[in-house]
């Protein structure tokens, strides 16, 4: 089996769907977590200056969605044909749009401004996406009515969103709640979460 090293920060964020996929696919990996004070000495040596990165037998892979897609292809979670893969990519792309709307939270320093953005995200922006995901998840999954890496990406990501916003975001979306239960109980994922609550 190839050797895998994931390099990220000591948070779930964009690293967590990769950790879930590696765990589900039974691929042992080193989970390297960079401390914030050590980041400047790593940043310049990393293409794009961003993590997560995944080293597979010494070859470095970049971009969390591209890394997940690569792992998914290895594990038949990337669709059975190009149309199915497109449906998965579209769902993941929409979630990246949502993360883009959330990302200004890290730059805003004024507490009042930060709370205003959090309120707007919680009351309008996030529900507009979650409503659509909930409709799609009536089929049991987020793409093609079957398990794919989109489910890992979005369920892991919604956990991070709840942490960042500091509120429950999905209890009003029963199909998403059911999907979360399903994904977080998958073999490998369940054990990973138990070890890393
Ligand atoms: N599109 C990239 C975004 C990566 C990204 O923004 N990483 C952040 C952490 S979540 C980072 O490395 N920040 C440190 C920096 O930019 O110096 C991906 O999905 O991998």
TrEMBL record:
Superkingdom, taxonomy of origin: Eukaryota
InterPro entries linked to this entry: Glutathione-S-Trfase_C-like, Glutathione-S-Trfase_C_sf, Glutathione_S-Trfase, Glutathione_S-Trfase_N, GST_C, GST_superfamily, Thioredoxin-like_sf
GO MF annotation: an example: glutathione transferase activity
The keyword Transferase is annotated on this UniProt entry: yes
The name this protein goes by in its record: glutathione transferase
Matching Pfam families: GST_C_3, GST_N
EC number: 2.5.1.18
One biological process term in Gene Ontology: glutathione metabolic process
Organism of provenance: Nesidiocoris tenuis
Homology family: Belongs to the GST superfamily. Sigma family.
UniProt keyword RNA-binding, yes or no: no
Keyword annotations: Transferase
Ranges for domain GST C-terminal: 81-197
Catalyzed reaction equations: RX + glutathione = an S-substituted glutathione + a halide anion + H(+)
Location of the GST N-terminal domain: 2-79
Enzyme class: transferase
